[in-house]
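Aim 2, interim progress: modelling of the flavin-adenine dinucleotide-bound target.
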Amino acid sequence: MSGDYSLTDEQKMVRDTVRRMAQEKIAPLAAEIDDTGVFPSVIREQFKELGLFGLAFPEAYGGSEMGILSSALVLEEIGRICSSSAIICAAPITTGLLILEYGSDQQKKSFIPGIVSGNTTTAVALFETDAGSDPERIATYAEKAGDRYVINGKKGLVDLADEAGLIIVFARTKNSGKPQDISAFIIEKDLTPWSIERTVEKMGTTAIHACELVFEGCAIPQKNRMGEEGGGQIIAARARGLNCILAAARGLGIAQGALDYALNYTKERVQFGRPISSFQGIQFMLADMAALVETGRYLLYKACAEVDRGQAEGYYFGAMAKCFISDAAMKVATDAIQLLGGYGYMKDHPVERMMRDAKLIQLVEGTNYTQHIFLAEGLLGL
Ligand SMILES: Cc1cc2nc3c(=O)[nH]c(=O)nc-3n(C[C@H](O)[C@H](O)[C@H](O)COP(=O)(O)OP(=O)(O)OC[C@H]3O[C@@H](n4cnc5c(N)ncnc54)[C@H](O)[C@@H]3O)c2cc1C
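Predicted structure of the complex, ligand included:
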């Protein structure tokens, strides 16, 4: 396995462009986005203008064919400034890449261009209140009726379902108790709208609404099944694999953002007649934080580079990166608050928001504990 994950000039250019854009356009709005829970359309327009939704997609669909590593670089840069914005940018990437890998030619033609252009907002609905870490327990059922499936059931905590034009929904097509009971479906809002039972309030990334959904007699054409009937588990695993990489990139951004902020603060804050950065205790904390950020970065870029080379084990390293980086982001953001002292706890500074947003990444795409089951299975060959 090659360990080569150095960035191309093109990738560096994308990273630097997005870094500038995030500083200029997103940073002034980040606190307000968190306070109001409202995402400004002007930021989405920026993402569209820069072609950020399409970086990982083939040119044939309007993308720029630069791989998942380029998307990770973008999410890292946006995540440094505003985690809600990074989720807006990430969500369609997973959906589009799933359709690219598992969809029919017709599904690819119908859905991917809208995703790449940023005109179609999407969501993925796997989780159910009684089926969290163990998605094999999902109860949502898709009953075959002629050339259609009729879907009934509920999904919990689906990001962006209130805005989405299409949702990939995982539902049971059999009750045999085998993994092959689950299939994946593409549901288009215009054709078969779903209803939202509740939007759940949360502690961070407030502009991304986590919705509880209801599908009641939701009839969709058979052509909207993605992949084979019974192939849903494999697609769900890939969704988690992709999401782990994108979530890790967001987490890396949070960790870097918190480190940058704390570093500057310690250089400026004077106590006992000198900047607090001159105290060795502070220096050691900063050094530990930087080591966590840099280690996470290498792991994530390695995972992305493997995926871009078509190596399935990239997803294994992606899961590892998501666990390592989310824990690192939580620690770095908490330490950043510590370094700011009492003011770190206040909303005057972004580090308390970063800590709240970092916590989420330890919980999603399979909590870090349940991702450890997957990592251990890989190690032990189970
Ligand atoms: C803000 C937010 C947005 C989300 N967005 C989406 C979305 O868009 N689409 C979607 O499908 N889902 C989404 N989710 C759901 C998310 O994927 C689940 O919350 C996650 O998979 C965990 O499931 P759970 O909350 O039911 O936890 P549980 O499964 O109830 O776990 C509870 C605790 O038990 C631990 N645990 C469980 N099993 C084991 C085990 N075998 N060994 C050791 N420990 C274990 C877990 O680590 C956790 O600490 C979202 C969640 C959040 C919080």
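The chain has a mean pLDDT of 96. The chain has three domains: 9-121, 123-230, 234-380.
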